[in-house]
Design a protein that fits this description.
This protein is an alpha+beta fold and 297 residues long. It folds into two domains: 115 residues, no CATH class; 139 residues, PH-domain like, CATH 2.30.29.30. The protein is built from four helices and 17 strands. The protein is extended and about 75 Å long.
């Protein structure tokens, strides 16, 4: 059965990936009521208010404990509660949310097969990226397109303020004399040995140009003040994603091209009626390119 929360294919009553209920008759979380009415870990018994005593019984603290699975929730202030203990630490809820502090509303959703806000966002983004890779690529136009499109070509993303960087060989020379020196006058010395030097070369990633990166359904085009780069998607042989950049290796060019600042653009993702706005990271860009290639096959 396909999980309605994360899309994971699994059997049984609960999803082994996110812990959501998989039964077709799964209950919806009640709109009103206390989250204490159902334990988020075992999802059967209500939580009971108990008192946890500290060292030598000198301190005490109010906690909420499940009489069935012995899960313990500790108040952390501001209507938030931490899952501080579970007898069965192989339970998927403990493995996912153990020692996490969440609101009562989040724990109520988890008790009825849902997920926390952060977990749900991560699952939605993961699911959306999988769909993008399959070819369902959304259009993300940030500003007017400056690239002349060919017949049947359409712009998918137009990203401003992108910097193109490439590795460049840098040579440094080190030199000096190794022999003793003789003082001739104040601040003036004569070195008895000859001058020797050595040269070393290494590569550094240097900024080449700044401009706009346009992704279409057929190619990737960088238009800068000094350089224009036109890369058919079929010529891309490798990509390495970064948080704010994408590294491209393409057929016919030895040097890797780095396009930084692509997170200037944002992608709106909608899954199950939920909407998330995420920066256009290297991972998202790579999934978009892969999806466009898969759709053209």
């Amino acid at each position: 059965m396909r999980c309605p929360v994360c899309g994971f294919e699994d059997g049984g009553r609960y999803c082994s990936n996110c812990g959501a209920l998989l039964t077709s008759g799964a209950e919806a979380a009640p709109v009103a009521g206390s989250w204490l009415e159902r334990c988020p870990v075992c999802r059967t018994k209500p939580l009971e208010e108990t008192v946890s005593r500290g060292f030598l019984g000198l301190t005490s603290r109010q906690v909420y404990t499940c009489p069935g699975c012995e899960a313990t929730f500790t108040p952390e202030g501001g209507e938030t509660f931490r899952l501080s203990k579970a007898a069965d630490q192989s339970n998927p809820i403990w493995k996912t949310y153990g020692n996490q502090t969440l609101t009562g509303d989040e724990w109520r959703r988890i008790a009825y097969g849902g997920a926390s806000d952060a977990r749900q966002r991560a699952l939605d983004i993961e699911y959306a990226l999988g769909e993008i890779q399959k070819g369902f690529v959304p259009e993300l136009q940030v500003e007017s397109n400056a690239v002349l499109l060919k017949r049947g070509e359409r712009a998918v993303a137009v990203i401003p303020r992108v910097t193109l960087k490439e590795p460049r060989s840098v040579r440094r020379t080190y030199g000096g004399g190794a022999g003793p020196s003789i003082r001739i006058a104040k601040g003036v010395y004569f070195r008895t040995s000859g001058f020797t030097s050595r040269s070393e070369s290494h590569e550094e990633v240097r900024e080449i140009d700044s401009g706009t990166l346009t992704l279409t359904n057929r190619r990737m085009v960088f238009t800068g003040a000094k350089r224009t780069v036109n890369v058919p998607l079929g010529k891309i042989v490798g990509m390495e994603p970064y948080k704010d950049a994408i590294a491209i290796n393409r057929d016919g060019k030895q040097r890797t091209e780095y396009y930084t600042g692509i997170d200037n653009a944002h992608l709106t993702i909608g899954v199950g009626g939920r909407t998330h706005v995420v920066p256009l990271s290297g991972v998202v860009f790579m999934c978009m390119v892969q999806g466009l290639l898969n759709r053209e096959e």
